[in-house]
Design goal:
234 residues; four-stranded parallel β-sheet; alpha/beta
Amino acid sequence: FTSMVGSRCNASDATRESNLTTTDTPSVHEKITAHRLLPVIALPDAGLADPLADALVAGGLPVAEVTLRTDAAEASIRAMAKRGDLIVGAGTVLTVDQAELAVGAGAEFVVAPGTSPSVIEWCQAKGVPIYPGVATPTDITTAVSLGVEVVKFFPAEALGGVKTLKAFAAPFGGVKFVPTGGIGPGNLAEYLAIDAVAACGGSWMVSKAWLSERAFDQVESATREAIGLVRRHG
């Protein structure tokens, strides 16, 4: 993978990323894309954050996108961030206030369902990788005009899946995608086969049912299987 973050930060931040690469210390983006999977998590209870993180790490996937869809999101991000053994980011970020809240809690990257110039610019100013959501060529053009190099293709399957993503990738040669929405073990390989795909987002290995049942052994097992799929097809 190329050494890039979700958006081009300002000159000093770009230099910082370059320096990280030079010293062989991977950037946040490089760590995420090294695994090629991004678990998308909605936690109803912050008390689940630590055992869930244990299961992800044990399964070989020390990355988590905690969506801001629940009241427990901020505390969950904070709990995961203080561990130091996984990268945690915030998803479903709609406003600058939410981005500021998430980063203040320890989020190392931000994911948005849409392309908000204000959120993108705030993240750029703070040197925080941002993956804005895109659903049309116009969305991608807007993101690119703001210096973004990696976008979230969302909702992937509802928008036509692999076929649509390939069509979008063709005219935007410098853009990488993180398809999310409807991706699972049955179609993961198809997405990973696309050169423009940096990583895939998904929630099948962290299902709501398993979280509600505190079935973290199931999460660990599903995570190991997902990593196995990546190794075979990624």
